[in-house]
Design goal:
Layout (H helix, E strand, L loop, with lengths): L15 E5 H15 L4 E4 L6 H8 L4 E6 L2 H9 L5 E3 L6 H8 L2 H6 E5 L2 H13 L4 E6 L4 E3 L2 E3 L9 H12 L4 E8 L2 H4 L6 H25 L7 E4 L5 H4 L7 E4 L1 H4 L16 E12 L2 E5 L16 E4 L4 E2 L9 E5 L11 E5 L12 E6 L2 E7 L10
Helix pairs in contact: 4-6, 7-9
């Protein structure tokens, strides 16, 4: 039986990025089933390949995109994307002005806000161009236990009362229209089920959010006609929609399933994305060196951010070197039989970040390359 590792990838000019199309489709179906009827919103930062995002938008059960940059949102809409929510606040006033002047972009793009300064900035652009720009309120979804906050540092708005007050302010700000809420529970979606403590925190957080998210929505709806309430992520897609409040769930990393998600007990998606690097040296019988490969993931710097060699099996790093900027030494039983020019397959720790290293993606099915498509980088786009 053929596998993705049988694909004839030529890495002679340098490492190559590969996506297994069959597994990608399987992962999407698993995520859609896990959402149990709640529409999915694809997170572009975990994909960064326009053709794959376009494929996703064509699938049943997908309502739109969750992107990370205002300029990215405009570019995607100009290329046919719809219902594009920018997941993070932006200060890109030049792009805001371009959106304000474009009928389609004004209809399809929603900016994220959580401070009065955000409202004033976007509202000023709207007033200058005689229109209203769409905004969504980012509400902090972290779990607070006394003075302890478990989650990520995002929004300044946490309680239903704060959300209602912000919605009131938005309703009084000319040039903006509040149409959505986002509540991303990072302490659930972004934390593996590694220990009983982790599992306890996640259960308690889900229970707290089932109450608070509804209260937030009711408070905001006193001042705004909401079109969406977004929540979740790949790691919580099976939990987020249970409260009956969320109208769409963000997923992205689960399509590629990087090593970050290998220890999620309830996640059944499989690895679909790899990068391939050629063997260029053999210092000894038990050591090979591949070209480049030091593609470390963002976050706290430690070994968990390193790519993982997965094929041939039985390869590991040297502790004093690890994956390098221009060469990566490997040892272990997997080095046997590897010759100069042979490929070693790696998985990245995070999904979309690897795409920033490559211009193209080789899409593989049945052990052969069926097409090669550009990444954002390959299309000359760098959104940060």
């Amino acid at each position: 039986m053929t596998s993705v590792f049988d694909a004839p990838i030529d890495a002679g000019e340098g490492p190559q990025f590969v996506v297994d199309q069959g597994v990608l489709r399987e992962n999407f179906e698993k995520l859609r089933r896990a959402a149990d009827g709640v529409p999915l919103r694809l997170a572009s930062k975990s994909v960064r390949v326009r053709s794959i995002l376009e494929w996703g938008l064509e699938q049943d059960g997908v309502c739109g995109l969750l992107v990370y940059s205002a300029a990215e949102a405009l570019w995607l809409v100009e290329n046919g994307a719809h219902d594009v929510v920018i997941a993070y606040p932006s200060v890109d006033v030049a792009t805001m002005a371009m959106v304000a002047q474009n009928d389609t972009a004004r209809r399809e793009i929603t900016f994220m806000v959580d401070l009065p300064e955000h409202l004033e900035m976007i509202g000023r652009i709207g007033r200058e161009h005689g229109c209203e720009l769409r905004v969504s309120l980012d509400v902090d979804a972290s779990l607070r236990i006394g003075r302890l906050s478990l989650g990520v540092h995002r929004s300044s708005v946490h309680t239903a009362e704060e959300a209602g007050e912000f919605a009131r302010l938005a309703s009084e700000t000319e040039g903006v229209r509040l149409v959505g809420i986002m509540m991303y529970e990072a302490q659930v979606a972004g934390v593996a089920d590694a220990t009983p403590v982790h599992r306890l925190i996640k259960r308690r957080s889900v229970q707290e959010l089932e109450v608070r998210r509804g209260a937030v929505r009711r408070a905001v709806e006193q001042y705004a006609d909401l079109e969406f309430v977004n929540g979740g992520g790949t790691g919580s897609v099976h939990l987020t929609g249970n409260d009956g409040v969320v109208t769409d769930i963000a997923v992205g990393s689960g399509l590629f399933t990087s090593t970050f998600f290998d220890n999620y007990r309830d996640l059944t998606t499989k690895a679909a994305a790899y990068f391939v690097s050629p063997v260029v040296r053999r210092p000894s019988e038990s050591v090979v060196v591949t070209f480049s490969g030091g593609y470390l993931a963002s976050g706290v710097g430690n070994s968990s951010r390193m790519p993982t060699p997965v094929w041939p099996e039985g390869l590991r790093y040297f502790g004093q070197e690890g994956p390098g900027e221009v060469q990566t030494p490997l040892r272990g039983p997997g080095t046997r039989g590897l010759a100069i020019g042979d490929n070693v397959w790696f998985r990245h720790t995070k999904a979309g970040e690897a795409c920033e290293r490559f211009d193209t993606v080789h899409v593989v099915e049945g052990g052969r390359v069926i097409e090669t498509v550009p990444t954002y980088r390959g299309e000359g786009k760098n959104f940060g």
